[in-house]
């Protein structure tokens, strides 16, 4: 339903009845010319909105005439302005149903009928990784925080309730680093990871550092007890090695290494992978990274770990070599998008695990689909590309036995998935 009222000013005001929640957490109305998206609106609400310049399919929420029973108070004062969270205003049970529904709908659109388990909550004590952005917006005015929702400015913050307690001090450290580098034109990206030994920080976008800047950053690292501080991976200061435990192994992380968003998320995803691979004697771990799956799988099976990140594979190899009781882990650097493991190479494995980036693993999925590997475990952070890859495997004769959604991005429109397939 949509009515228009232009008497209040130059901006056209419409009244809409929200039909459903979209895959990004927006309220959706099915208009005559296609879907209309309203950030912050919930199904069943009647809202007044105004047009968004340059975005004919979007509206800005002006007011809520009829409020949904699903609406709750957000936990963060920055919600709706900060672009990090999408659905803090949705009751938790409804939120869980919506997030599971993202996976169900993606599979349905791909023409796949598969059992989807209930959503597993993997928030734990919060996110252990964050990227803070910094920019000088005027003389002596600095902003440090997260990107705004669908905008190009930065929302300055002094706290974030979805971050793990081990990231306490990260925002203060990010402000200090930003003040030392005073970014003017480009946004400075400050990647912070909470490791078992402290905060590890990698700064990007600063350009080459001057000797005085290096000295000041080293002073900041000492003052804020930062484990390691690097610029684009180049060492600036280090007081101790950033360590993360993965199963029996202690992994020394390279700068800005990829980790699952929460510690609980990594543990749950790994256990699901281990359970699915039970009984396999030789496993291929594709897109292996620093080894969250490979190092745990190696406690019971021989593993071939493949990735194109030299630093990640070096960290995996060192961790494997220094951990007693593991079966051999063979490490190979390879671009699996351009050179996927072939059907001839895959035939030597009892199981294949693959956990690609958001774009999925189209080329590798085609090779797996044509292979004779009896068991495949797919891990994904993107329902759309996950469903596409599952459809390819189904065409090759694989049956989707189980699909489990895992939520380690609470309040965000992201969901992890672990699937088990058999041929």
Short description:
This protein folds into three domains: 2-71, Nucleic acid-binding proteins (OB fold (Dihydrolipoamide Acetyltransferase, E2P)), CATH 2.40.50.140; 97-123 and 261-422, Vaccinia Virus protein VP39 (Rossmann fold), CATH 3.40.50.150; 129-243, OB fold (Dihydrolipoamide Acetyltransferase, E2P) (Beta Barrel), CATH 2.40.50.1070. It has nine helices and 24 strands.
Overview of this protein structure:
There is one protein chain. The protein is globular and about 65 Å long. The chain has three domains: 2-71, Nucleic acid-binding proteins (OB fold (Dihydrolipoamide Acetyltransferase, E2P)), CATH 2.40.50.140; 97-123 and 261-422, Vaccinia Virus protein VP39 (Rossmann fold); 129-243, OB fold (Dihydrolipoamide Acetyltransferase, E2P) (Beta Barrel), CATH 2.40.50. The chain is built from nine helices and 24 strands. Helix 1 runs parallel beside helix 9, helix 2 (170-181) packs antiparallel against helix 3 (211-223) and helix 8 packs parallel to helix 9 (383-395). Helix content is 23%, strand content 32%. The strands form four sheets. It has an eight-stranded mixed sheet, with helices on both faces. A hairpin with a 6-residue loop joins strand 10 (141-147) and strand 11. With 423 residues, the protein is α/β, with parallel strands linked by helices. The mean pLDDT is 94.
């Amino acid at each position: 339903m949509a009515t228009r009222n232009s008497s209040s000013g130059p901006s056209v005001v419409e009244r809409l009845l929200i039909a459903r929640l979209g895959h990004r957490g927006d309220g959706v109305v099915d208009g005559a010319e296609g879907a209309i998206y309203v950030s912050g609106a919930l199904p069943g609400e009647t809202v007044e909105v105004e047009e968004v310049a340059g975005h004919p399919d979007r509206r800005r929420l002006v007011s809520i005439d009829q409020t949904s029973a699903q609406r709750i108070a957000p936990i963060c004062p920055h919600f709706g302005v900060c672009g990090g969270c999408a659905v803090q205003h949705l009751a938790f049970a409804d939120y869980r149903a919506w997030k599971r529904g993202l996976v169900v709908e993606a599979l349905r659109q791909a023409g796949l009928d598969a059992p989807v388990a209930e959503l597993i909550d993997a928030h734990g004590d919060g996110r252990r990784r964050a990227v803070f952005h910094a920019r000088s917006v005027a003389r002596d005015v600095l902003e440090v925080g997260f990107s705004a929702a669908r905008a190009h400015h930065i929302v300055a913050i002094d706290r974030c309730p979805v971050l793990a307690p081990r990231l306490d001090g990260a925002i203060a450290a990010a402000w200090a680093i930003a003040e030392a580098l005073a970014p003017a034109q480009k946004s400075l990206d400050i990647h912070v990871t909470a490791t078992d030994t402290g905060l590890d920080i990698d700064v990007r976008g600063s350009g080459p550092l001057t000797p005085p800047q290096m000295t000041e950053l080293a002073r900041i690292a000492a003052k804020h007890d930062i484990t390691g501080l690097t610029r684009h991976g180049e060492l600036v200061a280090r007081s101790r090695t950033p360590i993360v435990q993965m199963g029996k192994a202690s992994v020394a992380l390279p700068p800005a290494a990829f980790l699952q968003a929460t510690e609980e998320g990594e543990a749950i995803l790994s256990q699901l992978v281990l359970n699915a691979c039970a009984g396999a004697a030789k496993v291929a771990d594709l897109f292996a990274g620093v080894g969250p799956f490979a190092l745990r799988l190696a406690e019971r099976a021989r593993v071939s770990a493949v990735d194109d990140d030299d630093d990640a594979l070096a960290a995996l190899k060192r961790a494997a070599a220094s951990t007693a009781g593991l079966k051999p882990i063979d490490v190979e650097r390879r671009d699996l998008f351009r050179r996927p493991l072939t059907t001839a190479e895959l035939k030597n494995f009892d199981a294949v695990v693959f956990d690609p980036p958001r774009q999925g693993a189209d080329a590798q999925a085609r090779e797996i689909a044509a292979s004779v590997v009896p068991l495949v475990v797919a891990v994904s952070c993107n329902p759309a590309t996950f469903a596409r890859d599952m459809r390819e495997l189904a065409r090759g004769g694989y049956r989707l036995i189980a699909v489990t959604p895992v939520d380690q991005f609470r309040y965000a429109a992201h969901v992890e998935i672990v699937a088990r397939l058999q041929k």
